[in-house]
Write a structure and sequence with these properties.
- 39% of the residues lie in helices and 17% in strands.
- By secondary structure, it is α/β, with parallel strands linked by helices.
- The strands form five sheets. Strands 3, 4, 10, 11 and 12 form a five-stranded mixed β-sheet that branches.
- Helix 6 links the parallel strand 6 and strand 7.
- The longest helix is centred in the last third of the chain and has 30 residues.
């Protein structure tokens, strides 16, 4: 299978790198794929064989090494390292080399390491130590047909997915977000990731009964026209297709890592520390070169792009400024702060322990492994001078990811179809009349779901939208309107019909009703004031949204969970979006009394910039 995740201009390129795993039965064990292999000692440290895969995060490795062989004056050379970089997109062969001692390292995503965990833990010498995290993905996508509006709609759908690839874990995250199981969807397993008839994009294009597929950026553009676009059917796009979920929002799903053999790690602690620190230094310098290139141009950055093309080949990277640059732009480096957060911060729902659990759950539930054989966390001393006196970006303090005022302004302007288009998923909680407190005992399950969503979807915002029942506003409006004579009523009790200025007016037409009330059409009654009542309902709904937000924040603090408060924004909706526009009983009125959680995409302007994403 191909692990390639590349930039937006590689549509139609014949890609040669393969992630070799058995196809046809996605649950076939990884152990069977690897076959019999003898465990041997690592064959030497100079040069030391280090695998890489086709991904933007590996460009920092090329930069630190100066090419496939370590060049004098490079970051790795200055650390006394002598490395021989070797292509590792064939992950099964990587594992064979790792077990036999040709290399002490594995390179892949955390979920891939989980798939291989049973094999590498079969001998205490080769048990895996997750050495450091490189990046998060921002360039993987789930594309769906027009009838799938949010991930809540995936139940019962058919999804095309590459067997054994990086998107298996991404689908696992998405299903979990919607409280769905793998049994709730049907999987069409594809052999290849891209550029073949047996890839998810081509299966989606060829089979109208396939509702969604997982793709890399080039195929996403080929299907939908772009991240914020909808396929028109022209130029090879699929009519109505759109990106349902992207790692641009689901930014804590695909973590790229290096893993080291336990015996080598124990015997060469200083070497692996220098390797880790030099990679983090390279990521700092590469980001500086990228920023310079994007603002004024940078010859050193162009040299890195050329080096990347030379290593991957012009077939894979046809152009520098679009393809090689796009490859780097599809990943998000975490640097030193991200590694400290990943391995050491307690309560980090996107940290090592959380990933370990989800990776092993996935590996065992889908048949890649028969037992839970965990990986070991990096035991590197991040306070060592090898890090602290060497790296420039050391600030591990937590920052708010979003500008609260910008987020508030943006969300409050979203209504109707635009709000729905920005919604990734939603769910609600109900409350009783006059209820203003939301306890952990009653709503703890929902609060936990919110903090997990916020952690996993690091570049999305959870809007807490308070809703109120319209009954009192409708009563006030009818009485004021009849009293003033502006509202005509006919029929009998329980079957009244209303008209205004000669036009029928349905009390179930919430948009029209709220427009008239807000415009003051029923003002002037001494006894009835529907506009004041509607405003009071709006204020009450906002108060309830604020109360729920505060309860979620308090829940996270009580549980010791790291939580970015800027990701949760309270919104008062009032009576504008009732489930039942004209309730006829208290039970129906209660259905309108709710707080809705909506996971939303927001514009980049609402985000706060940071050196690294962690």
């Amino acid at each position: 299978m191909r692990t390639l995740r590349i930039s937006s201009a590689l549509v139609g390129v014949g890609l040669a790198v393969l992630f070799t795993m058995p196809v046809g039965h996605a649950q076939e064990s990884f152990k069977a794929s690897v076959g019999a292999v003898s465990v041997g000692a690592v064959q030497g440290t100079s040069p030391l064989q280090v695998p890489f895969i086709t991904w933007g995060g590996d460009m920092a490795t090329f930069y630190a090494n100066g090419g496939l062989a370590t060049k004098p004056g490079t970051l790795f050379a200055k650390q006394g390292l002598n490395l021989n970089l070797k292509p590792g997109d064939d992950f099964v062969q990587q594992v064979r080399d790792y077990m036999s001692g040709k290399s002490p390292f594995l390179r892949g995503t955390f979920r891939m390491m989980g798939m291989a965990s049973e094999v590498i833990a079969s001998d205490p010498r080769t048990k895996g130590v997750v050495l450091f995290q490189m990046t998060w993905s921002a360039g993987d996508h789930m594309v769906a047909r027009a009838d799938i509006k949010t991930v809540n709609d995936l139940k019962g759908k058919t999804i095309a997915l590459q067997a054994g690839g990086p998107h298996v874990g991404m689908l696992d995250d998405i299903l979990d977000s919607a409280n769905l199981k793998w049994s709730d969807v049907t999987i069409v397993w594809a052999k290849d990731l891209t550029a073949s008839a047996d890839s998810p994009a081509e299966i989606f294009r060829a089979r109208s009964n396939v509702d969604a597929c997982f793709v890399i950026t080039p195929d996403m553009i080929g299907l939908s026209g772009g991240h914020q676009s909808i396929g028109t059917g022209a130029e090879g796009t699929v009519q109505g297709s759109r990106v349902l979920v992207s790692t641009a929002e689901l930014s804590r799903s695909i973590a790229d890592v290096y893993v080291c053999r336990k015996d080598f790690y124990d015997a060469n602690k200083e070497l692996v520390t220098k390797f880790s620190a030099a990679y983090m230094k390279a990521s700092e310098e590469v980001l500086e070169l990228k920023a310079a290139y994007e603002s004024r141009g940078s010859q050193p950055y162009m040299e890195l792009l050329q080096l990347t093309q030379d290593i991957y080949s012009a077939d894979v990277i046809p152009t520098l400024e679009e393809d090689a640059h796009g490859l780097l732009s599809d990943c998000t480096f975490v640097g030193y702060p991200g590694n400290v957060a990943f391995f050491t911060q307690k309560g980090n729902l996107s940290g090592f322990e959380a990933f370990q659990t989800s990776a092993l759950d996935l590996a065992t539930s889908q048949g890649y492994a028969s037992v839970r054989a965990g990986l070991l966390p990096s035991g590197l001393d991040y306070n060592s001078p090898l890090f602290r006196d060497y790296l420039a970006k050391l600030d591990v303090s937590q920052r708010e990811r979003f500008n609260p005022e910008a987020v508030k302004e943006e969300i409050e302007l979203l209504t109707g179809g635009e709000l729905d288009d920005r919604t990734l998923l939603s769910f609600t909680i109900s409350f009783e009349p006059n209820q203003n407190e939301f306890s952990i005992e009653q709503y703890g399950v929902e609060f936990q779901r919110v903090v997990e969503l916020a952690s996993r979807y690091g570049n999305a915002v959870v809007a807490v939208r308070g809703h109120a029942d319209p009954t009192q506003t409708l009563l006030q409006m009818v009485r004021a309107g009849v009293e003033k004579g502006v509202l005509k009523r006919s029929g009998s009790s329980g079957n009244y019909r209303y008209s205004m200025e000669g036009r029928a007016l349905s009390l179930e037409d919430t948009a029209r009703v709220t427009e008239l009330v807000q415009a003051g059409a029923f003002d002037g009654s001494a006894e009835y004031d529907p506009r004041k009542t509607m405003q009071a309902a709006l204020n009450l709904s906002l108060n309830r949204a604020n109360s729920v937000r505060d309860s979620v924040v308090g829940y996270a603090k009580d549980k010791g969970i790291l939580f970015d408060e800027s990701q949760i924004q309270p919104v008062g909706v009032g009576i504008r979006e009732p489930f039942i526009a004209k309730p006829s009983s208290m039970d129906e009125a209660r259905e309108n009394m709710r707080v809705e959680f909506r996971l939303l995409r927001v514009e980049a302007e609402a985000s706060s910039s940071t050196d690294f994403d962690f």
